[in-house]
Design goal:
It contains 13 helices and 16 strands. By secondary structure, the chain is of the alpha/beta class. The strands form three sheets. Strands 3, 5, 6, 7, 8, 15 and 16 form a seven-stranded mixed β-sheet that branches. A six-stranded parallel β-sheet has the order 11-10-9-12-13-14, with helices on both faces. Strands 2-1-4 form a three-stranded antiparallel β-sheet. This is Enoyl-[acyl-carrier-protein] reductase, mitochondrial.
Length: 376
Amino acid sequence: MFIASEHTVCRTFISGSTTRQQQLSSARGSICRYSTESSINGCTALLYRNHGDPSQVVQLESMELPSVGAKSVLVKLLAAPINPSDINMIQGSYAILPDLPAVGGNEGVGQILEVGSQVKALRPGDWVIPRDAGLGTWRTAAVLAENDVISLPNDIPLFSAATLGVNPCTAFRMLSDFEELKPGDTVIQNAANSGVGQAVIQIAAARGIQTINVVRDRPDLTQLIDRLKAMGASHVIKEETLRRHEMKELFKTCPRPKLALNGVGGKSATELLRHLQVGGSMVTYGGMAKQPVTVPVSALIFKNVKVKGFWVTQWKRTHSQDDEGALRGMLDELCSLIRQGKLTAPACSEVGLQDFRKALDTAMQPFTSAKQVLVL
């Protein structure tokens, strides 16, 4: 990550009321402007110099950019979401932490403005997303190594591209790598309204896989159930239902799940385990309850369940040397689903960079219905 001394740069923010079509037009217009002129030499970024409360430590600052080297690219960032992992990284509680000072943001989409003389796989106009976490996407522009990013088609919606690299990839891999799921099989998951949960629903539906989706009770529960079912959810139930007789009735209409996906932990995870079929797997990818996963001895002995974990960042690093075939294949398949209308981005609220404090505060609230996306 490149952090340089402060340098004043004038930028025009895309306001929160700008339409997606205007965003794309603005992005494509700037490629014509910058690709025929000298490199821009600075950017505006959300920077933190210490770990702590994001509302206290994150600051909007100007930064210098280095010149575009032979194997680097100049990227104009277009949109970047605020994810829980971004918050945890700023707080200092995430598994990997960048050197400080650091630019926030692990996910987002940008457009190539210029390429170095030895860059072969990218060209001006390409859309790109980070290959790995810690790149620092909450900024208006960046000079990055060619290998730091991977291209995406620019004919998909902006917010779908901006939110593709983490949650849909996590959902895709968990549905692909742990159990051999066939049409008609069932998956059960908690945190079903999360970004991962929504992607699981849609990818599973596209594969003919049924989903039992567990959500917390809330004032707008009926609307949430309707929204998840419109995405393709087979069943949507409250946490409390996991412990009730209604589950027996539910399993008269669908087979017990081969796979359970746990993004919560605590009692919720234990209840998911109880409903797995013999030999099934529970995969933990998050711990929103901040409580340990407790596995009943009976589940291990009598049902031979498998308990595993998944972190998409580690998956990407493990597969970084395979000529990008696995990552490229996954992104191509996800983009195909997007084009077919079978995979949509979660509900998003677009926010200008200058309104970052409000966006951070909203992103940290419980029952947040829309992902905060910084439009750059």
